[in-house]
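Possible race condition, two jobs.
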Amino acid sequence: MTGTPESPYQPGEVNEQGGTGAQDAFLRLWTPHRMAYITGENKPVGTSAGDGCPFCRIPGLPDSEGLVVRRAEAAYAVLNLYPYNPGHLMVVPYRHVADYTELTEAEVNDVAVLTQQAMRTIRTVSGAHGFNIGMNQGDIAGAGIAAHLHQHAVPRWSGDTNFMPVVAQTRVLPQLLSETRDLLAKAWS
């Protein structure tokens, strides 16, 4: 049996991940850069501004280094280091505040205006068909950094439903199998 366009490997053949065995119907899209997000690398150690909050640190960096796209008086727009889609950005008040109800009128205004500008800009640049706009308030609601409010603007396109295994027969894996194996083997004893 020869390999197919979907899977160029023969059953039992060693592939680039060093594994062997019969191939299944899934292609693998490796995204090892997402392990930093999964393991909480660079995540604040506490809830105060001085506890390593990246949203407090970013405004002090040059825009290109901090991935800041636009600045306003009370808030800024910054690309997400771990995007769900290309162009995924966040609108963040400069002030270290956790809850939307704690924002000043000027902060609410800048967050809203920057969000509108982000949507217009992303539509112009990439033709986004829609957006998911929102913020997760608190750890329980899924906020990755709950101590510093941030609003996500995630561009969406028809067909980007992210059901990779179902639609594209592809799995997105954040780590190579050899790395996962080494971690498990080391922890087993």
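Job #2 (started ~2 s after job #1):
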Amino acid sequence: MTQPAPQPRQSAVTCFYYAVPALPMAAIALPLYIIVPSFYAAAFAIPLAAIGGVLLAIRLIDAVTDPLFGWLADRVTCRYGRRRGFFLSSVPLTALAAFMLFWPPADAGLAHLALWGTALSIGATWTLLPYTAWGAELSDGYHDRVRVSAWREGATLVGSLLAISLPFVGGLERADAFHGLAWIAVFVAVILPLAAGLAVWRVQEPVDRSVRRLSLRESLSHLAGNRPFLRLAAAFLLNSFANAIPASLFIYFVTARLDAPGWEGPLLFSYFLAAVAGVPLAVWTSARTGKHRAWSISMTLACLVFSGAGLLGEGDAAIFAVICVATGLLLGYDLALPPAIQADVIDNDTVRSGEQRSGLYFAAWSFITKLALALSAGIVFPLLGLAGFSTAPAASQSATALQALGALYAWLPILPKLAAIALMWRFSLDEAEQKRLRTLLA
């Protein structure tokens, strides 16, 4: 079979239109797992344990829907194409579920949370997997893939800033008014369909490089035999776990260790704002050192900068703000570079297997992200409890508990990051190897 011509370098305008849907999509995740539990508990008198059980069940459903939608994203096609069509068909469910969950009626209860929370999780997975696969296949160039990823992740960070700001600007005190979560509901319900339609209209369907279709057994066999993917996946899991640890402990570190209640919002905002600036910095660095080296350098710097947080204590909130800005810049590298490396890894699989299966690979990517979050919560909180730390409001903490909090927050993440650096520093799939793979595909 004669392969199609290589994809051209994507213009900034094309990258912009592709990235726009990431803005409302990013406004879904943070409210779902950070604001929704406390809001439903306070507004509808639902026990936190019951809410936690529902959210855990939704996570278990994710374990089924991630590989299912990854497989479907590589199989289903329509008049708009394999990626664009499957992506566009998911948007009505995602937009409706977000609207219903974030702006619940006055008589909402646990059943409403379970129904629309599950619908939103399914819809968001259905939307995200073909969307990220679309971006991975949009360009063939080693460095151009970083640009496409950077545009998407930059939009994701802006959406995260909106998700942090809008609920608190709108207020969360009353459920029978146009509260802060309702702002998010309207934003997603209106902007997501418009952004998705604009992207499908203005951004082309990527070339499908498949020359055969694999059975499920063959597909899994090739995935397990893709050594660059296994190495990248291990590094991504380790680094994601390292990032999830301080994310899980952030509020406790600020309020208990630094004794700075009220600083959580401004510090988080400065962190994500710095990450927006870090994305173009990651593009610039990777163009000079290569993607895997740029990512490794950023992780090394993050270890050095973040280690200082373990030495901070009461009254050091201003110093911690500087650390948040510095590590936020480096977060831009974590967001922009690994997905661009993943696109190269998929090339390796396509050459060997004959089928381009970006959907399945990004489903594995999604599973790794969620596994890292689960590992963080399952390891860190029991260790904090063993040190005598109390999560009760206004609880008095012992010196031992505060020391353990500082060590877990700042120093424990260094170990998995160092392991990730060791895996990626001599990563075999560099620019020269990627060009060789593209030649074979052509």
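Residues 308 and 410 are 7 Å apart (CA to CA).
Logs attached separately.
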